[in-house]
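Bumping with the actual sequence this time:
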Amino acid sequence: MSSVRDLGSPNRVVLPAHARIRFVLVRPHYPENLGASARALKTMGFSRLTLVKPSRLCVPEHEMAFKMAVKSWDVLDGVTIAPDLETAVAGAGEVVVTTGRRGVSYVRTPREHAPELVHAATEGTEIAILFGNEKTGLSEDEQRLATRYVRIPMAASQPSINLAQAVQLLAYELFTAALERRAGDP
């Protein structure tokens, strides 16, 4: 896939935070989650998606990734594949680790983190948001790079939600916080 045409609306909201926030999928397994994540990001105006050590199937060229991306093929086409996590977060002043694990200190919700992250991004700080493998999440070693931890609250005892759903929720909270910041600017 190369030179994929952007099929989105020409009338879209572009906010300063969009250029400074990257979403990093670490060891993703399913190409469907890659495509759905690309779509989730585009709906909220984001486009920076990085993969770290994806499975052999979880590549932008896979037909199921393409199918699930639905008019977000430009995001899929722009995916970067980093050889390791350190490369993926290089230059980031904030590294946000998503976790479904209990007992992690200093965990806040996406809604609590979003205004601070948007402020930092608007002021020029690069932000990397890390999502772990669909089955195992992020390892303790991968979590050591965190400057912040985020957990999506859930009513059920289900340990986590789908990877692309998590991407959508974080992107949504960041987008709405960026809209609120813009509305509050003189």
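The tokens above came from a reply further down the thread. The helical segments are 31-43, 63-69, 73-77, 85-88, 110-122, 140-143, 163-184.
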